[in-house]
Amino acid sequence: MLPFLAFxxxxxxxxxxxxxxxxxTGHAAQFExxxxxxxxCYNDNGGENTWGxxxxxxxxxxxxxxxxxxxxxxxxxxxxxxxSGCGVIVADFIMPHIESVDYDITMSLxxxxxxxxxxxxxxxxxxxxxxxxxxxxxKIVKDVTSTIAEKEGEPRGYxxxxxxxxxxxxxxxxxxxxxxxxxxxxxxxxxxxxxxxxKGEKKANQMMKEWDKAVDAVWSYIWEYNEELSN
Length: 231
Fold this sequence. Notes:
Helix content is 29%, strand content 29%. It contains five helices and eight strands. It starts with 14 loop residues before the first strand and ends in a 6-residue tail after the last strand. The N terminus is likely disordered.
């Protein structure tokens, strides 16, 4: 239920899983206390997996997320026995406070992404996209990210593609990390502006028209890292 997140020095090919919990109104404190109890039980049983625990800043209701990272699909065949004795904690102290759970599997896209991994980030701004034309979308992302890299040294965000999911689920997401809320105040040039300066107004306008046709929906949230409940 609470998997792990592994960080390295560079952004690498791998699988990121996302487990999202929508908590019942007024139950946030009880839910967090249940997660804390589960974490203690897991570690007391010799658990070695790590995970990132996040709370969503905007949007409806109180929503939490747990992120995990695996090198490949084969890692999902491995059984973790460390949590086998902690099931009663899940049943008694976590599940009663949950309204719904959503689980997603994504694949990292290093060719589109920033190469260096930044540790110690408190916030992640995640933008989700639902796409109807993958070929055109991919062409645009590669073109824009390479243009940003030419000016700034590397792309800005970390890209992922979703592996399956429902018809209304996103197909891609890109995350940008920030050390704290104050970092959000920094002036940052818009990617479209960078592209227009490099490629010209005519090509930039054509790119944006192709984007509008290829992308059905775009939305974003800020997620705040919870060090105490991560592992």
